[in-house]
Design a protein that fits this description.
heterodimer; A: 314 residues; alpha/beta; 7-stranded mixed β-sheet; 4-stranded antiparallel β-sheet; 9 helices; 30% helix; B: 501 residues; 5-stranded parallel β-sheet; 18 helices; 18 strands; 16% strand; globular
Amino acid sequence: MAGTRGSSLGALPMTPAGGGGGEAVVGRIVAREDFSDTTFLLEFEHPAMARAARAGQFVIVMAHEHGERIPLTIADFNRGRGTVTLVIQAVGKTTRQMQHDCRAGGSLFAVVGPMGTPGHIGEAAKVVCVGGGLGVAPVFPQARAFKEHGAYVIGIIGFRNRDLVFWDDRFKAVCDDLIICSDDGSVGIKGFVTDGLGLAMDRHDDIDEVVAIGPPVMMKACAEATRRAGIKTTVSLNPVMVDGTGMCGGCRVRIGDRIKFACVDGPDFDGHLVDFDDLMSRLRRFATDEKQAMERWSQSCRLAGGQESPGGAR
Amino acid sequence: MAKRKTIRTIPQERTPIAHQEAGSRVKNFGEVTLGYRLEDSLRESERCLMCPDPACVRGCPVNIDIPGFIARIIDQDYRGAYDIVTESNLLPAICGRVCPQEHQCEGVCPVGDTLEPVAIGRLERWVGDLAIKEGWSSVPYIEPNRFRVGIVGSGPAGIACAADMAKAGCEVVVYEAFHRPGGVLRYGIPQFRLPDDVIDAEIAALTRLGVRIECNTLVGRLFTLEQMLNEMGFDAVFIATGAGYPSFMGIAGESLNGVLSANELLTRCNLMRAGEFPDYDTPLHLGREIAVIGAGNTAMDAMRVCLRLGAENVHCIYRRSRAESPARVEETDHAEEEGVEFHWLTTPVEILGDDAGGVRGLRCIRMELGEPDGSGRRRPVPVEGSEFEFAADMVVYAIGTNANPIIGQTSPLTLNPRGYIETDESLATSMAGVYAGGDIVTGGATVILAMGAGRRAARSMKDYFGIRDTDAIYPAEGQAHPATLFGIDTSERIFARVHLA
């Protein structure tokens, strides 16, 4: 337990209030599921976090000792099993490496959370939850929370094509109305989630709130669509972070005429006030470094692959 | 004890300390100030006049028995010197390096009236370093009691409080949000000023006292203060989360890529080792012409890190003059030696962007000093028509921090209008059993002041538990101490407990 701790995840000394169950190892991956060649799910043990997590919060993960700290929105949590679920899109070096290395039975080097102010699940009677791309998973707990609060929940989830669809069953279970959108029309309606949102707004003239999670362009388009109708729209921002506790200011975003830190003031904000252009510009901050890291990692994988026997992944 | 010394009989010159030469040190992260050798310490110790009523002890925020430990050095009882220092300060190797001694112990040393004051900080560091080298630790006999203490934050305030409560026999758990303990010592202060292994050694000393450190734990969000007290079995909690919510100025261009807080820069480099990218995954994207706004210790650290990482030019922009700058004198001198260009009496009015969302320069305005303000320093006022531009591709803000909001967001604690936690004299907060200290109460200050607060909170917790405070070094102000308490000498250092309750 001295200063430098190789595996820094100690078990939390929570007194077992809810039974506890078997011996949980904080950070141990208990399940992995691959939804496509870029999207995968990790479920890890962390009973205290599962108990504390609420819709809209995120965690910061360090995959290994030399890793960077990346924020990932919580996709699900199971208090009974004491687990937290992340759905990750392998887009950069760190997430690609996690896709390569993280297996059930393995461990995350560090995971801290839940972070951020929980989404406000208010009095809304009719809610639309929009998830596109990497936003499909994190909008799920929001949809479920609204359902648990007795709201009429309309789910809109978008994928490129039929093969990439996941969690439609989970959404069906918590949504009164579910619209699936695909770019090629191979499943659900043909079009983007904004088309789905337009459809929902045509069908229902009494929508109280829209929650949209996905790439910034998507959230921006959703916010524009609802602005005209004056429907409250909440978006979840995922800018670059280091600590996730309000200390570095790297995640500052422009909300109206004010600067907010997404980690502690968010990550959920009023979509009509968010300066998405500013957000998108700031997300490109480390573009060249990310490219360099990615190239170097791909090269080391090729080298390692050449030396190992076929199928010799660790 | 040696015969009475006078200002005429002591070595007149302060014993110099070796430094890494400026030209070579800006190319590495090795320590700049190399520390005394044994003969240096012996010589410098002779300069202490052994004042009967030592001002330095009062000047020290944790009241180290300074003449006492220096006398042990003279007697060549180095272990004894270490034991005396650690009665008041668990972290001599750290404080010897980072305390602003010129404003504390050394600032009031009477030798300094005529000569240079005794180099107390260097001696303290020497003692601390020797202890690390020899593997000494001061672990007293600890009689366990039934109390459990939770500490939020493993920075200087948290560490100091943890040590005192562990010595008092309590079970202590320290929670840290980062993956490595140390708080600002770890993420904030660079290696060349405070090497990682010194922090590791001092934290190891803490764990030898039985303190458990839980990293990756964000108190407030993973569990609340109420849960700690009501469900997790803690009898008291000390909040030492620091200030650390960086300030920006609110001028145009602050969203540009290439504008960041010193906290972010330092965390990326110190904790996440961005200087070793891509061997470490955290990038920094260092500029070539870097402007750092502010002239405190954090600004100096940020600038010197940038130089070591290969920046071509580093500019310090400060709205007041050198005399008002809040950094330790040594840090400003070191930064200057290493090639930082200072622009005193200058403040930025706009950050200028390029087409790609990056920074191309700064528009600044000259300032002059007017009437004194609330802080007693002369207020800087802009000089009409003195605006000018200069080229920079990275801008770092080191103009201070605000209160971290997480504990306030997640508990009913009373905060002051600026978001800091309200406490009384004893550092008790508005929640029974919850104490707070360090930057989260005072706003940005120093390592040693935070440690002093940690110790003060520990004292209050012992009072709260009704366990006898055996810490005779640090008596409460204004409280008459009876010679005995229930027949036990209050200055006695055995660790038997008397429950007043």
